[in-house]
Amino acid sequence: MASCLMKKSRNYIDDNLYSPNSSTRDRVKKEVKKLQMLKSHVVVPYHVLSSTTNYRETLDVIEARQYRSHGLIHVTDAYFETVMKMEQIRVDCLTMEEYGRHGEDLIENAQRKLLSSGDLLKSMDDIFVASSSEEKELMSEMYQEMVCRYLNMGTKQFLKDLRRQQDIQKTAAHRHNIMMRQKKKEKKDAKVALEVMRADCSPGRVTSHRKLMGIIAQFGDTILETYTKSELHSLCDAYGVPFTASTKKGDLCKLLAHSVNSNNGMPFPINLAARLKVVSVGDGERVKIRILSAAAQL
User: What secondary structure, in 3-state letters, does 24-52 show?
Assistant: First the structure.
């Protein structure tokens, strides 16, 4: 983080050092002052820090990853601890729970918490020991830059993780839908058609009965949901399962599955065929009829 601030100040100084604009030159002076403050209060040579730091392992890792140009800098323990506090607040603010709570205001809320953190502000005061109003103003600017840069880095990673999680959820939901469609197709293919059962000439339609027992054992009573309600009524008639017109389909399936497993064949195979019955007669010109199962006629 300190290296980013120093690089930004150096770039501004290099680009605007000879600017004819007075306000730009004043800004150059401020950037020079920031560089001096960072070098005086934050940056520490390795040979000095190696004998005083409380985080020797971290120091050794950074030193081991130095390039030939030694572009990585070492900072004081106080500055390192401040950045770790900032990281903890950032991690606490950029979560799925916080995203669900704040939505599009997530980043603004995290920035507000970081900028208003009394603990972080006190740590910055202790690091820079600003004595003049100018130094305090520059310290405040650097802190705001630190927060914005650090939050931007964390936000990019959070958005990346969020997209990955959403993709995983979509993929999982898609796979679930595919599996459900496959199971539905398997049940439909395994279903014993009512026409096949009606054409069964075995005693007590035992062949069809065994097929029903097999698919119920394989898929459970939910396999019976592949039949229409009128087909279930016919099957209930064949197995002597009492029902009413208002009996729900799920209840019919459970009752029928229990009866299938409790019998060695269809107790009333003749009832599997639909029957016609006149329920009302018109004025001599029209006759109204409907198909009724045996149980519904009782």
Answer: HHHHHHHHHHHHHHHHHHCECCHHHHCCC
Give, in order, the Cα–Cα distances in Å from 11 to each of 35, 70, 137, 146, 150. 11, 19, 21, 17, 19
pLDDT at 294: 44
| Under 8 Å between Cβ of 255 and 240 | no
Q: What is the pLDDT of residue 7?
A: 86
Alpha-carbon span 17 to 19, nearest angstrom: 6
Binning the chain into helix, strand and coil, the percentages to the nearest 5 are: 70, 5, 25
Judge if pTM exceeds 0.85. no
Q: Hey, what long-range contacts does 123-131 have (CB within 8 A, 24 or more apart)?
A: 123/78, 123/81, 123/82, 123/85, 124/82, 126/78, 127/41, 127/42, 127/76, 127/78, 127/79, 127/82, 128/37, 128/41, 129/41
In the numeric block, which tokens belong to residue 182? 């496959």
What per-residue confidence (pLDDT) applies to 68? 65
Rounded to an integer, what distance in angstroms lies between the CA atom of residue 119 and that of residue 116? 9
pLDDT for residue 274: 56
